Amino acid sequence: MSFPKGTTEHPINKSGKREILVSVWDFEAVHPQSERSYYVCNDHPAKMRPPLAKAILQLYGESTVLDPMAGIGTTLVQAILLGMDAVGVEFEKKFVDQANKNISHVAKLFPNRNLGKAVCIKGDARDLSRLNARKVSSVVFSPPYFDALSISKGGGSKSSILHKESIHESQIKRSRPFAVKKNLPTPYSSKDGNIGNLSSFGAILFSPPYCGVMDAKRHVGGISARDFSLAKTGSYSKDEKNIGNIRNERTYLGEMLKVYSECHRVLKPGKFMVVVVKDIMRRGLTIPLGADTIKLCQLAGFEVFDIIINKMYFPSFWVLDRAIRFQQEGILHPLKTHEYVLVFRRPSK
Question: What is the residue range of 272's domain?
Fold first, then answer.
């Protein structure tokens, strides 16, 4: 096959005139507005780059594609442009509407092209029961990052404070590389139920039990029939402190485990799920979200097929400002200019 542009940008390909897929992808510094010319709605605060979504779909995508956290539909649009059918699930109604507008716009732009069909529906990635009648052939998405939307971190959900922060940003002269004139930020969500608003991270364990996996209401892959039977009867452990009995503390990782477990349930055996994440900073420390995501997906029953690094060129104002302050204070935290493209496969058996 001919690999997507940007996935073979490496001296081994350029000097040898080969086409070998490499583990570091580079889609160059293209202005976001120019590479999103097919979209009429772009005000989601955390969009996947279209060329990245396209490359993932070309390599691992297959109809029907599922994006369980669809946002404004970047994955869906790129899927139909490649002739694949796709379905998106999105928690926020405003983004559901924008995703469907983007899908309709592309269909009008290319009336004679053999496009796939796509739709975005309102729902919760933690419960994909509406897809019970449909087994999907590939899953591609980028989840919201833990507490990434809180007001204190430069995200948040209160329009007035976001507006004030944006005015403050516009007053700062930005002569840094790849500076982009930004519109007023769009409030992401005011709902506590949105995973992006969860403020507690939670511990990671690489073997069951974890975050209520012994709950009789949910059978997470990896639990034996005997253990599940014990959980169902409530006799797994009488100690409320046993981690297998913890069901009330709603942490980000606990909620994402539900998402990955649902994806595992609706994905056809032997097919791929691709998750795009990056490590994040909290209180001056690095949270290895890439590594934690791998553990969660393995816990949900997936195999790790590959780990790919994608170069990033346009850090947010807040991330760039923090990196500059760290450097000025002598704190040796490099600016994160990469994200992980984590490729998982549901076992065939």
Answer: 11-155+253-345
Query: What letter represents residue 341's amino acid?
Result: V
Distance CA 103, CA 88 (A): 11
Q: Return the residue matching tokens 């899953």.
A: 139
State the total domains in the chain.
1
Alpha helices in 206-266 (DSSP H): 225-233, 252-266
Q: Walk along the chain (349 residues) and give the pLDDT tens digit of each residue.
A: 789 999 999 999 988 888 999 999 999 999 878 899 889 998 887 789 999 999 999 999 999 999 999 999 999 999 999 999 999 999 989 999 999 999 999 999 999 899 999 999 999 999 998 886 668 999 999 987 655 444 344 444 333 334 344 434 444 444 444 433 344 344 445 555 555 544 444 433 332 333 333 444 444 444 444 444 444 444 434 544 443 343 444 588 899 999 999 999 999 999 999 999 999 888 888 989 999 999 999 999 999 999 999 999 988 888 899 899 999 999 999 999 999 999 999 999 7
